Every structure is written in C-alpha cells, then in structure tokens.
Amino acid sequence: MKIKFPLILLLTFIIMGCAPVKPYQKMYLNDQDMVLGGSELEYYDNTFQTYREGCAGANGGKVGGGCGCN
Amino acid sequence: MQLKYSSILAFCIALFSALIGADHTQKQDIDVDFLWNYYQQDGEHSAVTGGIGTEELWNTAPTFIVRVPFGDHTLTTNLGVDAYSSASSNNIDPIRSGASESDVRTHLDVGLSVPLENNRSVNYSFSASTEYDYTSIAPGIGFAKSWNNGNSEFSAGLKTYFDLIHEIYPKELRDLPDLESDPKRQTYNVSLGFSQVINQRLQLSLATDLVYQSGYLSSTFNRVYFIQETALPGIEQLPDKRFKYPLGIRLNYYVSELMVLRFYGRYYADDWGIRGSTLQMEVPLRFHPEFTFTPFFRFHNQVEADYFAPYGENDNLDEFYTSDYDLSGFSSSQYGLGIRYYPFEAISSFGLPFSNSRISLKKIELRGSQYSRDDGLDAFNIALGMSFTIPRK
User: Fold this and answer.
1) Which of B129, B196, B326 has the CB atom closest to A54's CB atom?
2) Radius of gyration for chain A, computed over Cα atoms and rounded to the nearest angstrom
3) What DSSP letter does each residue of A17-50 carry, written as one string?
C-alpha cells in the first residue's frame, strides 16, 4: 500500500503532463525500437518464464491457459 | 461443453463475415516471419520426483508467422512446433529404461484484425494446441480505440481456453482409487490496456490480464513427499480455482538516434498467495544505421504459494500441497543480448517455384540470454528470427 499510492500519483502526474503530439511530430515515436510491446523473439523468453515462474501475464504473453504451465 | 462449441462457432461466423467484407482487390505484400529457438535448463528440484532430482531439459521451437493483408483487414496465422526432451519426465515411470522422455507440442493461432470507423478496430483470434498430455482450444475477441490524434489508445480483449489434460500419473500410483480421469481446465482472460504518448520522445503503456482458472489445476505427474512416513508419495493437490491479477507498465524513451531506453515493470498477485515483482531494462544501441545491439537485464522476485513446501516437508493432513519449485519463493536474474540486421535494401531475394514472384529476406535477428534462479536452476535461451516479404501482383 505504501508504494502503490505514490506510484499512482506519479503516473497521474505523468499522464496529466502530456503534450499533444501531432502526426508529423512522431518521427521518434514511430521508431521500431519505440514500439510498446515485446519483440517476436521476446515471445520465447516470456514462454519459458511462464513455465519456470509462478507469475504470468501483463506482457502480451501466456497467462496460464493452453499449456501445462502455471 | 456448450460454451466451448458456441464460442468456436461464433468465432468462425465472425471470421467468415469479416473476410467476405474485406476488400480483395488491393494486392499488398505478404509478410512471413520464420522464428526458431533453442532452450536448455538444469536444476536440482524436479517436481516429478517431489522437489529433488534433475530438472535437465532442452526444447527447440520453430515457428512460422504469415500476415496476409486483405485491403485494410489483416489475417495472421502462426504455426509452430515445440519439441522437448526432459530427464525428469523419464522419472514419471522409473521402471522404463532408455533415454529421456520427449514430446512434441504443435500449436496454431489464427487472428483477424478489422478496422472500424472513428479510430476503432476489432480483432478475432483462435488458438489450438496439442501434445501428448494436453489439448487446448481457445477462441478470443478484442477491441481497441484511439483518440487525441492517436496519442491515446485503449484496448480490451477476452480469451477463453478450454483444456483437456490426458492424465499421466507416476507409475507406482496409477492403481490408486479416486484418481481424476479426463481432467479438464478452463481459463478466462480479460486483457485491458492503455497507452499514452507523453511527449515527442516518451510514451508509456499500462496493461493487466485478469485471469480466472477453474478445473484441474494440479499436475498429474508431480509427486509430493510428506513429513509423515508413508509407503507411497502423494500426487500434487492444488485448488480447483485460481484468480490472477498482474499489472504491467512499459516506458519507452527515445534518447537519440544512437539509443532508446525500454523499461518494463510488473507486479503480480494471485489468490494462491504468490506475489511477484519483475523489472526489465533494454537499451537498443544503433552505432550503424543497419545494425542494432540490444543488451537487456531482467530481475524477478516472488513469494511462494501458500501450498508449497520443500521435499519431505508437506503435511498429508493438509487439503492442498505441492513441491513444485516454480511455485516457491525465489529471485531470478536474466541478462542477454539481441542483435538485429535490418538494411535499407533486402538482404537477399530468391524466386518461388511455379510463380514469377520473388521472396525477399528483409531482416535477421538473434537474441540470447542466460537465466538463473537462486534455488539452483540455470537456463540458456537463444532465438533466431528471419523476416521475409512476398509481393502480390
């Protein structure tokens, strides 16, 4: 609880401080390394992490169904 | 059973309708990705032998991903095979002799993305997989909407897994009464995501998967040894319900054309008592316009499940118990390097049989990492990716 409230507050300030970016200003944001998600090869990392750890999800990978994983 | 077949039927109808409604006159290029991975591990706490013994295993997984545009619709097909060999699996039936037990898992994932008016889109998905002891089918649907010139986006999805487990009990326990026959498992996953552009160089996303599982959630071949002296070990017993609620955040910052900072953090909790924190940092470095080197580091820490105890420390009077170290408390670290070669011109091209088209190799990627858990498990993973384009006339 101690860390959750400051984190939520920080995220709120970050989002409130957003500056609208027009489409022609997105040359940096459209860089392939700026994609908000894992690469296709990172899928394999997510897969073995799901099998070897009790935690899964919130990363676009397996969540526990469809396999004999946790 | 009715829900499973109804959802499959609904998916097929939606997919057929979307394909019929797509614009088939525009001929856009087809993208094909070939991925391959090799994974190996070893440790000292095999769940098959009650929390002790070798965890030696290797796995190789070739996968093909094909993206076919139909106008503004995109059909994606993912077909892959996982072939593994495991020394601990051989201990399910120690009377048998020979090499380590091996198995092959085949999976197929089909998805269709359909854009709608007002910056909205819907996607349909269907997955199926089968291996010696596990069969699964999983229909799904998702929705996304962006606003504010695409600076903000919200997405939601629902995916359901209907799994059938082909029970494989330890050899010495197969004649016990009251064993589960044809155990089933269902998983319902609600995915929620929000992404926001902060400024011209910084963007973030939040994601959660609210997961509810029911059915047989144990592993039929995991032994458990008790504090009490018993003639035979027990079989892992876990609750028939589980609720998971992870929350993840990604922050990407464009420092310069030489460097990008990629941060990922996740907090995980479930009603089995597991709590986990994960931090990952990647730093793509571009010293040459066609090459990118990406060192990365990941740290994970988790608190054990309420039902976990090491070898010989479970109580057979408890309702639930396991000695699966994947559900124990531990810290793990992973470090590695990714290399990408993506030139402006195609790397190579070659003709297709019975066609005038030429397939072009656009990109090659390699990613390798070393993973270590503080309970003694070590793993190595390396993956190769090759991206091709097939023009359509």
Assistant:
1) B326
2) 17
3) TPPP--GGG-TTTTSGGG-SS--TTHHHHHHHHH
Judged against a pLDDT cut of 70, whether residue A55 lies above it is answered with yes
CA distance B115 to chain A (A): 19
> How many whole angstroms from its chain centre is CA A37?
6
Checking DSSP bridges between strand B30-42 and strand B63-70, what pairing results, if any? antiparallel
All residues of chain B having their beta carbon less than 8 Å from the beta carbon of residue A15 are 196, 198
Which of A43, A65, A70 faces B163 most closely, judged by CB atoms?
A65
In this structure, are residues B187 and B223 in contact, taking their beta carbons and an 8 Å threshold? no
pLDDT surpassing 70 at residue B7:
no
List of long-range contacts for B230-236, beta carbons under 8 Å, 24+ apart: B230/B316, B232/B172, B232/B173, B233/B50, B233/B170, B233/B172, B233/B173, B234/B314, B234/B316, B234/B321, B235/B169, B235/B170, B235/B173, B235/B179, B236/B47, B236/B321, B236/B322, B236/B323, B236/B324
Reported as a single tens digit per residue, the pLDDT across B244-279 is 999 999 999 999 999 999 999 999 999 999 999 999
